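Q: AAA+ ATPase domain-containing protein, please. Structure only.
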Amino acid sequence: MKLLGIAIALSNLLTIDAFRSPVKRGITQLTFGLEDNVKSHHHSSGPFQTFVEHFSASRSGTDTYLQTQLSEIYSNSSIVVTQDYYFDIVRFAAGSPESVVIRELDEIASIKKIVFVKPMKRREGIGKIAERVVFGGWNVAWEDKEFKVIVATWAETYRQVTQWHIITDHPESAQQFIRSCSDFCSTFSDVVWVFEQGGWRPDRELWEAASWEDVVLDDAFKTSLQSDYRSFYKAEKTYKDLGVPWKRGLIFLGPPGNGKTISLKALMKEVKVPTLYVKSFHSWGGDEMGIRDIFARARAEAPCVLILEDLDSLITDMNRSFFLNEVDGLEDNDGLLLIGTTNHFDRLDPALSSRPSRFDRKYTFPNPSHAQRRDYAIWWKDRLHDNSEIEFPDTLLDEFADKTDKFSFAYMKEAFISTLLTIASGNEKGDLDFRGILLKQVDHLRNELETTEAMSFPMTSFGRDSGGGGGMGDMMAYRQMSMAVGDDSTIYQIPWIN
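A: Structure for AAA+ ATPase domain-containing protein:
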């Protein structure tokens, strides 16, 4: 009984304004004190008291208890209950094109928590104070319907539960409201859904990361890649008329740092369908459960893009068979564009690298050619054009391209970034020899690259046999179907796909 008194006294502190007047707008409310414990325990007068009293004693089945107690309080109405993850009337009212108005219920004394939301990026400011509702209620006007909505949130085992109760005389309308609200709140046109640690989260930053203007690749290669995924989403009828499953698989391969990831980011920004990005198969139920959840979400969102980065690391001996069974689903995978990336194609399971029905086309992202290295230098020259303190002569374009043979785009970027940081640190001395510093950084990175290569095991070259087997030279039927694009870029296609 002492615990009951403490809990109710604490609730009084949280809601002192709500209980300051015993009568508000014709609704009787009780003012509790420690001496009223027994009386309050036996005489609930509303949803708020029901919620507080429940958590003041040992009790189980919170979801059922709340639903039945609210049914008694609002005995003349129906109670429609949902724990749908996406149901959020506040977000629905704030952003939906439908007519939605919400107002807090006067007869409900809300329990709220004030929290500090730290910004994700420093440039977003110092953060903000936000309000989280533990228990509360609203009047909701939706289209030509009106409801009362009461929400409660509590901890249960390892998770947090949020349960919404819609009080109405028209339960069919409440179900339609749930469908409209959840459908709106589950649709994100400006995020990428990322799967990691066994769950999905929306990532707007990944969606905003890049556009095709930021991607420096051979023009023909870039155009072919763009045409591939763009035409896929326009060709549903063609696939169906030919009796071919409407699904597509692409692999991006090649040494790290040459545009695979940034091309994916540009693709994700452009497509007008949901994008799912998988970092790991791991989940609390193991890889098999993670794979099942990933493909179930992809099928529910289809048509969509499903991206598996570092495919050679994702597939293991333990999950291989289960993964292949999910990929091989024909009608189940309708509308699915599956894109995998790998830095080590020679390590990829042959069931993926040499099976056309799983991945139909392979795009090789090699180290940039001389022309591409010069184009990359031009991109930086244009970017630094407005900086009057940096002299970037045209002759430096060819010098840079000549000295960066075998450099990836990542290595070239590091050369420019290091140069600018060096200049920034020595700016007060007036040392702005951009050309000299850039070429010195290139020499430094050249030594680093050669040292790394000497310490590494021999790697299979892309696009030719190295004598050790594997790699692109052993791609079976693909060897005869290669199409050279640019100096080194290659696209491999299967015979029955144009």
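A: Brief note, in case it's useful. The longest strand covers residues 128-142.
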